[in-house]
C-alpha cells in the first residue's frame, strides 16, 4: 500500500469524516463516538492551523492529523488540541508515524515559532502511547477519570508533550 501525506483541502472533508467514523468505532481509539463525527467536525478539522491527510492513490483518506496553535499570548508557542486518526484496516503500516513526522516538520518552520506540541492519550490505548514515546513525546501528567467510556467505566488521560 502506498500513500501520500499532504495538507488537507475542503475536498477532503467527507473522507476525513468517513475516516474518523471508522476509527471511532473502536472504543478508546478516539475521544468522539461515531455519531459525534459530523460534517461540521470535518470542517473544524480541516480549518485547524495544521491538517494533514494520508491518501492512497485512489484519493481515499486513510489517515489524518490536525492541531491548532494556542491563542492566548502566554501559550502562543504551543500547538495543541491534537487529534490523529488512522483507518483501522490500515493501522500498523507507518501512517500515524508519518503524519506525526510531517506535523512536527511543519511546526519547526512556523514563524512565530512553535516550541511545544502537546497531546492527551487515553490510558487504555497503550499502542498510541508507545507511538508518541517513540516520536519523542514525554509523559507530563495524568488526569484521573478524565474520560467516561460508553460502558460507564472511567479512563485516565495521559498528558504528553514535546519540546522542539
From TrEMBL:
Gene3D superfamilies: 3.40.630.30. Keywords: Acyltransferase, Transferase. InterPro entries: Acyl_CoA_acyltransferase, GNAT_dom. Residues 3-164 form the N-acetyltransferase domain. It comes from Caulobacter segnis. The keyword Acyltransferase applies. It comes from the Bacteria. This is GNAT family N-acetyltransferase.
